[in-house]
Amino acid sequence: MAEIQATLRDAKLDGWLFYDFRHSDPLAYRILKLDEKMFASRRWFYYVPASGDPVKIVQSIEQYNLDSLPGRKLVFRGWQELHARLREALSAAAKGSKRRIAMQYSPMNDIPIHLTRGCRNDRARPLLRR
Predict the structure, then answer these.
(1) What is the model's pTM?
(2) Beta strand pairing status for 55-59 and 44-49?
(3) d(Cα 127, Cα 114) in Å, to the nearest integer?
(4) Burial class for 36, CB neighbours closer than 10 Å (0-12, 13-18, 19+)
(5) Left (φ > 0), alpha (ψ -120 to 50) or beta: where does 33 sit?
(6) Residue range 59-77: average pLDDT?
(7) Cα 13 from chain centroid?
(8) Are 74 and 85 in contact (CB under 8 A)?
(9) Rounded to an integer, what distance in angstroms lies between the CA atom of residue 17 and that of residue 20?
(10) Alpha-carbon distance 29 to 35, whole Å?
(11) Distances (CA, A) of 29 to 12, 43, 120
(12) Chain centroid to CA 78: how far?
């Protein structure tokens, strides 16, 4: 985690919000060194601030999926709780007037697998070379 946080600080980013739903983000598994074969049918988020402790946001049915990662755990059941947990996790980053939080994004969640092998974000490239 220290390497990710150092890279975030070097890139002048406040944090990185990882997200996955049914293994839609292979980069998250690779960067966070998660078991790519683990059963994951529910959404999860993992917020890594540039400094401080990370936060896991997991659905109650699969609340143990991120236990291999450091940080406190916030559990949600429905959309309302999910939104509340995201606000809670990201509230520390809200102290400044301009927040810069990295997150993988694909319009309409259209993530072609062949494109995920590379990275077009120069700031994230050092994390992907491991």
Answers:
(1) 0.78
(2) antiparallel
(3) 19
(4) exposed
(5) left
(6) 92
(7) 14
(8) yes
(9) 10
(10) 7
(11) 23, 13, 18
(12) 19
Assigned token pair, 110? 């259209």
- Name the maximum alpha-carbon separation found in the chain: 40
Question: Tokens 């983000």 — which residue?
Answer: 25
Residue pair 40/62 in contact by the 8 Å Cβ criterion: yes
How many whole angstroms from its chain centre is CA 62? Answer: 16
Burial of 37 (0-12, 13-18, 19+ CB in 10 A): exposed
pLDDT tens digits for 69-127?
Answer: 999 999 999 999 999 999 999 886 666 556 788 887 766 656 554 444 444 444 554 55
- Angle at Cα 128 formed by Cα 130 and Cα 86, nearest 5°? 120
> What are the CA-CA distances from residue 88 to residues 2, 47, 124 (Å)?
22, 11, 25
Are 48 and 1 a contacting pair, CB within 8 Å? yes
Pairing type for strands 55-59 and 72-76 reads parallel
Sign of CA dihedral 18, 24, 28, 34: positive
Q: Calculate the dihedral angle through the C-alpha atoms of 115, 1, 10, 109, rounding to the nearest 10 degrees.
A: 30
